[in-house]
Automatic annotation (TrEMBL):
Family: Belongs to the class-V pyridoxal-phosphate-dependent aminotransferase family. Csd subfamily.
Organism lineage: Bacteria, Bacillati, Actinomycetota, Actinomycetes, Micrococcales
Protein name: Cysteine desulfurase
Superkingdom of the source species: Bacteria
Ranges in a coiled coil: none
Species in which this protein is naturally found: Ornithinimicrobium pratense
The keyword Membrane is annotated on this UniProt entry: no
A Pfam cross-reference name: Aminotran_5
Length: 450
């Protein structure tokens, strides 16, 4: 394992003190749970879903108790209050992203946001779907045989299967940027080319924790811009840990981004699609019905401007309010400090696992190259067995392929065990995890030094 001394020096002064972290943990009621024969819960599965602070639970409850009504409908006071709360939540999300509110679309989750983007291309092929659209944007949404979509080998299925299906519907070809043995993206040269119309990739791998460089001078962004390809980013794993405003800033080279509420201290059932205003105006809608219309006649309909164009039906107002409370909570903690806390946890976890030679960590060895999660294998022991041993000690982790089968095949492992962090995770919990993990060689008769 390489040592990140400079990174450690930069982040050490920003990480939460013991007193601050204790105060943060007190905000999360579920962390007081005891499990498995009255053992204290050690929750290391935040990459799957995060726990929720009281301010989020209270915000959602308060909406239902005081303001519950269908937003954008009705002229009564409750409807007005509900609409104000919902649009206020949109403003909070926009502030978190450093974007305009009309570039924020509420979705069910990150998966729906990615499907919304993918279906825009196939829906664009319908007669009249792009009538009145800016010709430059319209041309970028037309997709067919000979065109290519590029993803990476480390994608979650949510950012792979929608593009596979889009290729099936349109005749386009799917290509992918490979992954190195140590969990970094390979050079996009030779993959991103003149036929590339879309590059869709994750900001942080949900398996490896790899933090992909998405700066405007990064190889993948430069390659996409050189051929005029649209760039879409899955930020589901980065949004809880990093300030992602650089991705949405002008000149970033990124055209759209998604993240999900339930991984970002917020409720389930709500996610976010952010996209450039011009792209949203050009994209045909994904779902149709009430709320997203402008004029309806029996002969046909016209659409409301974005973001309403993509929010058919009664929206998830209470969940949006809860998500806004979650993002405000993260912002109040300070996203630079949240990231510093994550880096301290990552450094401690990698150092701790390096002391156990029977554990093989997947992905980058440098702390600064990783965010949020550490996946590993114990050769000769199935990850499900590792997970069961940890669970018996009250340690909650994820086992399996983590919705990333192709990545596991690339790494030549059938599955892995993943420990993932939240703002409430402590180094003491990492130590408890390691102590429980030490039962694996004892139970399976392995040499601990092997």
């Amino acid at each position: 394992m390489t040592t990140d001394r400079s990174t450690a020096d930069l982040t050490a002064g920003l990480a939460f003190s013991a007193q601050e972290l204790a105060a943060v943990r007190a905000d999360f009621p579920l962390l007081a749970r005891r499990v498995r024969d009255d053992r204290p819960l050690v929750y290391l599965d935040s990459g799957a879903t995060s726990q929720k602070p009281r301010v989020v639970l209270d915000a959602e409850r308060e909406f239902y108790e005081q303001h519950n009504a269908a937003v954008h409908r009705g002229a009564h006071q409750l409807a007005e209050e509900a609409t104000e709360a919902f649009e206020g939540a949109r403003a909070s999300v926009a502030s978190f992203l450093g974007s305009a509110a009309d570039e924020v679309v509420f979705t069910k989750n990150g998966t729906e946001g990615l499907n919304l983007l993918a279906y825009a291309f196939s829906n664009a092929a319908a007669p009249g779907a792009l009538d009145g659209t800016d010709p430059q944007w319209a041309e970028r949404l037309r997709l067919g045989p000979g065109d290519e979509i590029v993803v990476t080998e480390m994608e979650h299925h949510a950012n792979l299967v929608p593009w596979q299906e889009l290729c099936r519907r349109t005749g386009a070809t799917l290509r992918w940027i490979g992954v190195t043995d140590d969990g970094h993206l390979q050079d996009p040269e030779g993959v991103v080319g003149e036929a590339t119309r879309v590059v869709a990739l994750t900001h942080v791998s949900n398996v490896l924790g790899t933090l992909n460089d998405l700066g405007p001078d990064s190889p993948v962004i430069r390659a996409a811009q050189a051929v005029g390809a649209l760039v879409f980013v899955d930020a589901c794993q980065s949004a809880p840990h990093l300030d992602i405003r650089a991705i949405t800033s002008a000149g970033s080279g990124v055209d759209a981004l998604v993240f999900t509420g339930h991984k970002t201290l917020g409720p389930s059932g709500v996610g976010v699609l952010w996209a450039r205003r011009g792209l949203l105006e050009a994209m045909p809608p994904f779902l149709t019905g009430g709320s997203m219309i402008e004029i309806v006649r029996m002969e046909g309909s016209t659409w409301a401007p974005p973001p309403a164009k993509f929010e058919a039906g009664v929206p998830m107002a209470a969940q949006a309010v809860g998500l806004a409370a979650a993002l405000d909570y993260l912002t109040a903690l300070g996203l630079d400090r949240v990231h510093a806390h994550d880096q301290a946890l990552m450094r401690h976890t990698l150092q701790t696992l390096a002391q156990r030679p029977w554990v093989r960590v997947l992905g980058p060895s440098a702390t600064a190259d990783r965010v949020g999660a550490v996946s590993f294998v114990v050769d000769g022991v199935h990850p499900h067995d590792v997970g069961q041993i940890l669970d018996d000690s009250g340690i909650a982790v994820r086992t399996g392929h983590h919705c990333a089968w192709p990545l596991h095949r690339r790494l030549r492992v059938p599955a892995s065990t993943r420990a993932s962090f939240g703002v409430y995770t402590t180094t003491e919990e990492i130590d408890q995890f390691a102590q429980a993990l030490d039962r694996v060689p004892q139970i399976f008769g392995m040499e601990a030094s092997a």
